[in-house]
Design goal:
By secondary structure, the protein is α+β, with helices and mostly antiparallel strands. The chain is about 45% helix and about 20% strand. A five-stranded antiparallel β-sheet has the order 3-2-1-4-5, with helices on one face. Helix 8 (about 160-170) crosses helix 9 and helix 9 (about 175-185) crosses helix 10. It starts with a strand and ends with a helix.
Length: about 220
């Protein structure tokens, strides 16, 4: 189990960083606001330290891959570890949801503030209730933590996203499938000029995903 990594920054983008530790290169997932801050303040080759939460990601066809999530502060890592213990709240969804300071999220949990929790991306009414039911009483110390900035940036949602959702539902996708497809397309960071542009991106990603599965099954 890896708990901390210290090395030289080799690469960083919107969601990941690569750290060189004695010639070994580790790819680390980051909350988007932390990644943006590091891009603005750290140059390639700078020595950097991440507090690490590692986990195993399961692919749809049964393969498993080790992944790491990095945080600048130990307290952020500890909160995230507890937060993602809720069933149905995956690592990637949780990373995108951190658009409020962790102290505010913890306070919402401890005070049963479902309205605030439902404002977090990917957190619907049922999941908000489950978060409170499973974590209330476990996050009080984070609610008392010194005020911090959000770890994630709100993703830009095109004005026509609801229109695209309706089209996907008309094409007989389940709402959960349609939402996941829409989220993946928006997460690319591209600026879509129309609903057609967004739909084309969704179908490109869906086709690529299907092709990858077919290739792996053939191998």
């Amino acid at each position: 189990m890896i708990s901390k990594i210290k090395g030289n920054l080799d690469y960083i983008d919107d969601t990941t960083a690569t750290v060189n530790v004695g010639g070994l290169y580790y790819e680390i997932m980051l909350p988007s606001a932390l990644a943006e801050s590091l891009r603005n303040t750290s140059t390639i080759g700078t020595e950097i330290t991440f507090h690490i939460l590692d986990y195993i990601e399961s692919a749809s066809i049964g393969n498993q891959y080790p992944r790491m999530v990095g945080f600048a502060d130990q307290i952020d890592k500890e909160f995230f570890s507890i937060f993602t213990s809720v069933s149905g709240l995956g690592i990637k969804k949780a990373l995108k949801s951190l658009i409020m300071p962790i102290s505010d999220i913890a306070r919402a949990i401890e005070t049963n503030d479902l309205i605030s929790l439902k404002k977090l991306p990917g957190i619907g009414p049922r999941l908000a209730e489950k978060i409170v039911a499973e974590l209330r009483g476990k996050t009080a110390r984070f609610a008392l933590a010194k005020e911090t900035k959000p770890l994630a940036k709100p993703e830009h949602k095109p004005d026509f996203a609801d229109e695209v959702m309706l089209i996907l539902l008309q094409l007989q996708y389940r709402r959960s499938e349609a939402q996941a497809m829409l989220d993946r397309a928006i997460a690319t960071g591209k600026r879509f000029k129309s609903s057609e542009d967004l739909l084309n991106q969704i179908f490109r990603q869906t086709t690529k995903s299907v092709d990858s599965v077919i290739e792996e099954e053939v191998e």
